[in-house]
C-alpha cells in the first residue's frame, strides 16, 4: 500500500507564495505519475498539475501555467508544488495523488493513491 501526506498549506495574501509538499511512504516503488488536485467548497475536485515518474514531463491546468511549478524528489519520496502569485480562486484543499502505473491522465479516477489534503487559503 502507498500512503501520501500533504503539508505546507496555510493562509497567504493574494500575490504571495506557498510550497506544498507530499511525502510518500509504503510501496513507493509502485508510484508512477503523481499529481496535485484541489477542491473548493461546493465544487468538483479539479486537476492542477502532474509529473511523470522521472520528472521529465509535466502538465498543468491552464490557470496554473506560469505560476505553479510541480517537481519531485524520488530519492526522498517527495513531491512539491511551488505556487507563486496566488489568487483568491486558488483557495481550496489541495490533494496529493499518485498512480500505480504510468499514464498521462487528469481525472480523479485515473489515480490510485490519495493524501488527506492540505488547506490553502488566499486572502484578498
Please give a structural write-up.
By secondary structure, the protein is mainly beta. It is 0% helix and 49% strand. The strands form two sheets. Strands 2, 4, 5, 6, 9, 10 and 11 form a seven-stranded mixed β-sheet that branches. A four-stranded antiparallel β-sheet has the order 1-3-8-7, with no helix packed on it. The radius of gyration is 13 Å and the shape is globular.
List segments where confidence is low: pLDDT < 50 over at least 5 consecutive residues: none
Total helix count? Answer: 0
Mean pLDDT: 96
State the end-to-end distance: 40 Å
Relative strand content: over 45%
Radius of gyration: 13 Å
Secondary-structure element pattern, one letter each:
EEEEEEEEEEE
Shape: globular
Compute the number of strand runs: 11
Structural class: mainly beta
For the biggest sheet, the summary is:
7 strands, mixed
Helix content percent band: under 10%
Summarize the structure.
With about 120 residues, this protein is mostly beta strands.
Amino acid at each position: 500500500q502507498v500512503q501520501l501526506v500533504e503539508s505546507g498549506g496555510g493562509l497567504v495574501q493574494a500575490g504571495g507564495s506557498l510550497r506544498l509538499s507530499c511525502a510518500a511512504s509504503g510501496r513507493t516503488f509502485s508510484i508512477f505519475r503523481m499529481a496535485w488536485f484541489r477542491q473548493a467548497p461546493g465544487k468538483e475536485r479539479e486537476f492542477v498539475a502532474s509529473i511523470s515518474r522521472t520528472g521529465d514531463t509535466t502538465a498543468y491546468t491552464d490557470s496554473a501555467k506560469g505560476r505553479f511549478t510541480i517537481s519531485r524528489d524520488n530519492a526522498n519520496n517527495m513531491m512539491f508544488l511551488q505556487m507563486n502569485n496566488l489568487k483568491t480562486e486558488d483557495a481550496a484543499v489541495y490533494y496529493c495523488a499518485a498512480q500505480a502505473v504510468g499514464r498521462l491522465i487528469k481525472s480523479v479516477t485515473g489515480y490510485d493513491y490519495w493524501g488527506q489534503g492540505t488547506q490553502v487559503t488566499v486572502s484578498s
